[in-house]
Amino acid sequence: MFDVAKVRSQFPILSREVNGKPLVYLDNAATTQKPQCVIDSLVEYYTQYNSNVHRGAHALADQATRSYEGARESIARFLNAQSSCEVIWTAGTTEGLNIIARGMSQQLDAGDEIIVSELEHHANLVPWQQACKYAGATLKIAPIDENGALDVDAFAALLTERTRLVSIAHISNALGTINPIKTLATLIKANRSDTLFVVDGAQGIAHGDVDVQALGCDFYAFSGHKVFGPTGVGVLWGKESILKDWPVWQTGGEMIQSVTYQDATWNVLPGRLEAGTPNIADAIALGTAIEWLATQDLEGMRLHEHALIERAHELSATIDGMRVFGRAPERIGVLSFTLSEGHPADVGFLLDKQGIAIRTGSHCAEPLMGRFGVTATARASFSIYNTLDDVDALFEGIKKAQRMLG
């Protein structure tokens, strides 16, 4: 049995109250809470060895550098990267995707094609829109079905000799759909072996093993705060054979090899894509978060989260006027819904008064909302530390909100 009580005990924020009620935190797709070991990691850096990394000739700099690069190695192991130099520190998923999109815009020709899906977060849509506009390329949108599952046959039909890049979310932030990444990788590479395959891993990283070799992608981007780590830090993983010559994203210190007043040459990986003083403390703490996650019962975690969303779907069938979006066969614990009695923002407000934290709005997926004919939904999203009691509390809260709105 998965020991959720043991997991919960490591997250100090879960013991607090909100509006006089025990906190029921169901906004995990937006950001996850942090275990004590991650909090301790941040405190230790700032109180024991705060220093810049790589070139300081003193003990604090040496300790900071070893911890910083050790975190990179921990993440490389977790992702099954071939080398730690393939792990590029970023500010988060959005920056990682923009690094690829900016570089790709310099390599596209007029008439080339990029494919995304109807499921995408704005961060995995707008950068490709801009890259295509810059180069005169075409952006294609792979459709989903009424359950929110990607139509794989329709996706395959979009692949042509002009397909230069495909970028797909590992998991939808708005619906919880798990996309068949390995299947897509096979289709993409069979169509054209040099087509680049990018995976937006913002939601995927916290829900089990992410083996980039097995997935078959060329890039995988994620944010630290989605995987029990700090905000403001993330990772772009990419194959060394591709990243070593990728157009630089920012210029300045650290990413250079040599500089004259007339020109500059670039550093080797990973430095060439990491300009300036990095987010040292948060990178170290993200390494701690990844190491913590790696020690968990990942299979038990998946089964536990599956039980949570199954309970939520069962209870949703008992609520009159509740419309649930996203019933793909493969999904994580995301329940996106509307109530006939009121706007999602009103529902979220009334749930918050009961200590229940959810998210409302378009979830940075306006085109997807339009696909289902709504402008917003209420979204409850579950994580490793949520319980069946949390699910029950959500639905009791929904019933109370209905009565108040009705």
Structural write-up:
The protein has two domains: 4-30 and 297-405, Alpha-Beta Complex (Aspartate Aminotransferase, domain 1); 40-294, 3-Layer(aba) Sandwich (Aspartate Aminotransferase, domain 2). Strand 11 and strand 12 form a beta hairpin. The strands form five sheets. The protein has a seven-stranded mixed β-sheet with strand order 4-10-9-8-7-5-6, with helices on both faces. A four-stranded antiparallel β-sheet has the order 13-14-17-16, with helices on one face. Helix content is 38%, strand content 17%. The protein has 14 helices and 17 strands. The chain has 406 residues and is an alpha/beta fold. The two termini are 40 Å apart. The chain has helices spanning 4-8, 36-48, 59-79, 93-105, 126-135, 152-158, 181-191, 212-215, 240-243, 280-294, 298-316, 344-352, 366-371, 388-405; strands spanning 17-18, 21-22, 24-25, 87-90, 113-117, 138-142, 163-169, 196-200, 219-223, 234-238, 256-259, 264-266, 322-325, 334-339, 356-357, 359-361, 377-381.
Q: Helical residue percent?
A: 25-40%
CATH class of the largest domain: Alpha Beta
Number of contiguous helices: 14
Largest sheet strand order: 4-10-9-8-7-5-6
CATH superfamily of the largest domain: Type I PLP-dependent aspartate aminotransferase-like (Major domain)
Sheet/helix structural class:
alpha/beta
Rg, nearest Å:
22 Å
Architecture (CATH level 2) name of the largest domain: 3-Layer(aba) Sandwich
User: Which range does the strand content fall in?
Assistant: 15-25%
Distance between the termini: 40 Å
The biggest beta sheet, please?
A: 7 strands, mixed
Using the coordinates shown, work out and report the CATH topology of the largest domain.
Aspartate Aminotransferase, domain 2
Sum up the overall morphology in one term.
globular
Low-confidence stretches: none
* Mean pLDDT, all residues: 97
Number of E-state strands: 17
Domain count:
2
